Amino acid sequence: MRERGISPHLKSLNDIRSMKRPIAMVISPGLVQDLLWADPNTEKPKPPNWEPNPYRNCSVMFGPEAVRQMCKTLGVHMIMRAHQAAQYGYSTFANNQLITVFSAVRYNPETNNWGAVAKISPDLEVSFALFKPKEFKEPQAKQ
Q1: pLDDT tens, 19-60?
Q2: Is residue 42 assigned to a domain?
Q3: Which of 6, 36, 37, 114 is geometrically suited to a Cys-Cys bond with 89, CB 3.0 to 4.6 A?
Q4: 3-state percent helix, strand, coil for the chain, nearest multiple of 5
Q5: Number of C-beta neighbours around residue 113 at 10 A
Q6: Any idea of the CA torsion for 5, 9, 11, 16, to the nearest 10 degrees?
Q7: For 110, which DSSP code?
Q8: Domain span at 114
Q9: Which spans of this chain does the record mark as coiled coil (predicted)?
Q10: In the chain, how many domains are there?
């Protein structure tokens, strides 16, 4: 399963399948907003399942137990997500049941992050192709 985040409003994969598309703008709290903006809570040693997301001023942050329960509810082994920078191109959460993949190398020049692409084998083994940033020089001003 792949998306940005998970949601306490998500009860089955049919909830995603039945969404009206295209989705032009999301301003209301709920399932669509969470799928676009929810983040794993990596800051607390034992985060709650769900709590408001103070970094985005919308959606939720979720803990490892929420990921475990969501995988069980949806009948999936893991959740793969994107749209959140990861220093080395990818990161894992909740005993590898949630994987974040970020392909944009040097998304923010100050962080000098790597990019990654997930490779999934027929037997669902996940590996990564990693892309290190090249040396970066600021363009010279034209005189």
Answers
A1: 999 988 888 999 999 999 999 999 999 999 999 999 999 999
A2: yes
A3: 114
A4: 15, 25, 60
A5: 21
A6: -60
A7: T
A8: 2-131
A9: none
A10: 1
Q: How far apart are CA 48 and CA 63, in angstroms?
A: 6
pTM: 0.87
Rounded Cα gap, residues 71 and 38, in angstroms? 16
Note whether 53 and 66 are within 8 A (CB): no
Sequence-ordered strand ranges (E) for 33-114: 39-40, 50-52, 60-62, 79-81, 90-93, 98-101
Contact by Cβ (8 Å): 47, 54: no
Structure tokens belonging to residue 66: 């929420």
The three-class DSSP label of residue 33 is helix
